[in-house]
Write a structure and sequence with these properties.
This protein is globular. It is an alpha/beta fold. The two termini are about 35 Å apart. The longest helix has about 30 residues, at about 115-145. The chain has three domains: about 5-145, Globin-like (Orthogonal Bundle); about 155-255, Translation factors (Elongation Factor Tu (Ef-tu), domain 3), CATH 2.40.30.10; about 270-405, 3-Layer(aba) Sandwich (Rossmann fold). It has 13 helices and twelve strands. The strands form two sheets. It has a six-stranded antiparallel β-sheet, sandwiched between helices. Strands 10-9-8-7-11-12 form a six-stranded parallel β-sheet, with helices on both faces. The structure holds flavin-adenine dinucleotide and protoporphyrin IX containing FE. Flavin-adenine dinucleotide binds next to helix 3, strand 4, strand 5 and helix 8. Protoporphyrin IX containing FE binds near residues 44, 60, 84 and 398.
Length: about 400
């Protein structure tokens, strides 16, 4: 446990960290990548470019300082971070590297304000949090390795099928190259794909599993990321998968991780509301398929927002499911203008739109999509007074990005 003096000092630095947090963490990443280039391949360069990762760490540090005397409030954050770290193979030996660079950065950015007492208190506090994360990450590695068909680290998988789902989303069906069975996973979880970069290093990306567990394959469904503006590079891994990986090729993947999932052992009567936007349908599709099997009587309302039909993945598949399951209603909502009939309409997925489709607001909500969609749905559910235990979401980037918005 941390002593009272350490807690008091760390808490007293929360305001100054909130003020300088981003400068501090920018300095920290620059310093760490120059002193310890061996950890650079763990990090997504695009998150660094956009400043997302800096904000994520700055936010985590500030929240930690502010809540050091009440760590229960960080419980959910610890699980999110540990699952993310485990998906990327962050190991105990990496913690001293981050710790040393973090403390040196506090000293270098705060200058004389960073007294020995402050540095010592932060060293103790960092060590305390690191131990919590290392402990949880060890459990996750062990659980993933011990499952039937499980493994630790990266393993070679063969693409058994490549299938276009829409004009910009393609599915890859993956089987273990050694023919081993696949481990169970929870619907909503993601795997990690590791590929080589032109400079001889590697880079990793998470992809949600879009099929249900228990299949002879893992399926990921990847959107081709175009350059956001002129003179910026296109998404590296998504384009490589689309253009250079064909059926028969092998890729390296790490085992399923993630704290966003549908617990099929929890038997609720409440309706299940599944909301997806764009490629955010991938974990929601896995949840939908699993929910239909686990809850044959429970009312399920599925809403998918997309720009238009041409980019929408799994549109026909979810309509076919609705034909087979009387407890499922599906809706397609397109933001591009156009005449629509049946379960398709034009417009955004707003609180009013969702409410018009529900028997009552009291439901379990699972959602995934781009940032504006996530922020608006989250705020609406909170405004409706939906308890946190009924609100579940995945975001395809650092969670802090969402909280900042
Ligand atoms: C838990 C989780 C689950 C996910 N599941 C899925 C999924 O099911 N399907 C899916 O498609 N994606 C998913 N993602 C997103 C995925 O991990 C990748 O982030 C996505 O494929 C983009 O990776 P990339 O290598 O193609 O793009 P990156 O190279 O990482 O680039 C990302 C974006 O930044 C732009 N960019 C790159 N470099 C620069 C630069 N220097 N300056 C300006 N802009 C730049 C690119 O053009 C691109 O638009 C998931 C993410 C997470 C965290
Ligand atoms: C106490 C120590 C640490 C804390 C508090 C911490 C916190 C975080 C947080 C908040 C995220 C974002 C999670 C999300 O929303 O997706 C994250 C992601 C990450 N962390 Fe840590 N972390 C710590 C230690 C480490 C260490 C030792 C490493 C190893 C080098 C590491 C590497 C990463 C990587 C690679 C990511 C994903 C980055 C990306 O998206 O590019 N972290 N961490």
């Amino acid at each position: 446990m941390l002593d009272e003096k350490t807690i008091a000092i760390v808490k007293s630095t929360a305001p100054v960290l909130a003020e300088h947090g981003e400068t501090l963490t920018k300095h920290f990443y620059k310093r760490m990548f120059s002193h310890n280039p061996e950890v650079a391949p763990f990090f997504n360069p695009a998150h660094q470019t956009a400043g997302k990762q800096q904000r994520a760490l700055a936010g985590a540090i500030t929240a930690y300082a502010a809540n050091i005397d009440n760590l229960e409030v960080l419980g959910g954050a610890v699980e999110l971070i540990a699952q993310k770290h485990a998906s990327l193979m962050i190991k105990p030996e990496h913690y001293p590297i981050v710790g040393e660079n973090l403390l040196a950065s506090i000293r270098e950015v705060l200058g004389e304000a960073a007294t020995d007492d402050i540095i010592n208190a932060w060293a103790a506090a960092y060590g305390f949090l690191a131990d919590i994360l290392i402990g949880r990450e060890k459990q996750i590695y062990d659980e993933n390795a011990k499952k039937p068909g499980g493994w630790e680290g990266f393993k070679s998988f063969r693409v058994s099928r490549k299938e276009k789902e829409s004009s910009n989303i393609t599915s890859f069906y993956l089987v273990a190259a050694d023919g081993a069975p696949l481990p169970a996973f929870k619907p909503g979880q993601y795997i990690t794909v590791r590929v080589k970069t032109p400079d001889g290093q590697t880079t990793m990306r998470n992809y949600s599993l879009s099929d249900k567990p228990g299949q002879p394959h893992f399926r990921i469904s990847v959107k081709r990321e175009l350059p956001p503006e002129a003179n910026t590079p296109a998404g590296y891994v998504s384009n490589m998968l689309h253009d250079a990986i064909e059926a028969g090729d092998t890729i390296e993947i790490a085992p399923p991780c993630g704290e966003f999932f549908l617990d099929v052992t929890e038997k609720h009567e409440r309706p299940l509301v599944l909301l997806a936007a764009g490629v955010g349908i991938t974990p929601i599709m896995s949840i939908l398929l699993s929910a239909l099997e686990a809850f044959p009587k429970r009312e399920i309302i599925f809403i998918h927002a997309a720009l238009n039909e041409s980019v929408q993945a799994f549109g026909n598949a979810v309509n076919a499911l609705a034909q087979q399951h009387s407890n499922l209603r599906t809706y397609h909502r397109y933001s591009d203008a156009g005449q629509r009939t049946g379960n398709a309409s034009t417009g955004l997925v707003t609180a009013e739109y969702i409410e018009g489709l529900l028997p009552s607001r009291d439901a379990d909500y699972y959602f995934c999509g781009p940032q504006p969609f996530m922020v608006s749905i989250y705020h609406d559910l909170i405004k409706w007074g939906i308890p946190a235990s009924q609100v579940h979401f995945e975001f395809f980037g650092p969670r802090q990005e969402l909280q900042a918005a």
